[in-house]
Amino acid sequence: xxxxxxxxxxxxxxxxxxxxxxxxxxxxxxxxxxxxxxxxxxxxxxxxxxxxxxxxxxxxxxxxxxxxxxxxxxxxxxxxxxxxxxxxxxxxxxxxxxxxxxxxxxxxxxxxxxxxxxxxxxxxxxxxxxxxxxxxxxxxxxxxxxxxxxxxxxxxxxxxxxxxxxxxxxxxxxxxxxxxxxxxxxxxxxxxxxxxxxxxxxxxxxxxxxxxxxxxxxxxxxxxxxxxxxxxxxxxxxxxxxxxxxxxxxxxxxxxxxxxxxxxxxxxxxxxxxxxxxxxxxxxxxxxxxxxxxxxxxxxxxxxxxxxxxxxxxxxxxxxxxxxxxxxxxxxxxxxxxxxxxxxxxxxxxxxxxxxxxxxxxxxxxxxxxxxxxxxxxxxxxxxxxxxxxxxxxxxxxxxxxxxxxxxxxxxxxxxxxxxxxxxxxxxxxxxxxxxxxxxxxxxxxxxxxxxxxxxxxxxxxxxxx
Length: 466
Prior knowledge:
By secondary structure, the protein is α/β, with parallel strands linked by helices. It has 16 helices and eleven strands.
């Protein structure tokens, strides 16, 4: 189909663009270190670089479709692939005779240029794909089978986020389904005729788990027409849990995987990273920013520079969380009725310098001291003040489970927009769901992605930061 041809074109473009980026990076590195291409150019080394890049991408999953994910995730995979390439290329230099020999400086420059060139090209391609999707091009045409709550949620999600690249052209179900803007094609028995007459790229089966016979029948029809099938099971209770689908004989089973941070080696990696990263912050930006921020706070309002607040950490233990003071000294955490007062937009308690600190997240810098003390991590669920914990644990499902790991300065919920005031229990539930997702799917690379996205949000600004 024409739509598939366009998608294949973009996929090929991604591969060719990376090859061009590597050539560009290599030429730039040779020119910078040797002055001319005649001195340090090696076609064998360049070809090895390109071939190794594509081979390693099969391990790093660099070319997986991530148009629905944040660009920070793609940067992490580019970094991972570049690190693997550095190992393989450095080994290759033992077998390739290059005159003059490549220096460490050339090697570092070359890899740096590769990272910059690949990241830039992938960002431009991502933006061009999003622009094409915004114009109604490159969409996968989806047919929904079933009108369960999961199906409705799926339909609303792909409509809301156009850059996911899906367009639902219709729905079939045993009962006439009424989903706003979605054409009803008839009962399940009409699936064969619909696939025969309509240009469908993928069928999403969202029938109840108990309707096994119809699920099987739909899969057989799709196999006949060679149409991709996606099954949308009713597994909402496992949405934030790490699960794996296995088979025992011919019987599929769902395994709930143990928490990654239950393993001592993962905790050790995370702790070492926390210490190294915190020390880097203190001895780089901290040397300049800490005294400067302290001076501004002292000059603009009365009171202490640091604000200390009781919060809950690992295993519900109470910790003292440090922040730069952003409110007037007379402000209190609770109102006259004993209810916790969250910061709201245009909150009169916030000083003018405090507003800037909050919008840029600089008020959180002292929490790197908490990280060094061991009661917080650089990345993890954000710790909440004690009154908010007591209030939320009664109304939010699985709220206390977020305390089974160390709290963090930034977290998966925050980089996904769950910042600032939680006006309803639904807002807090959404934040907790993100936290549980992070806890069950932790990896070192996910931490790196969250840190990178946090930096991007600081530069770009966050409308929920007030």
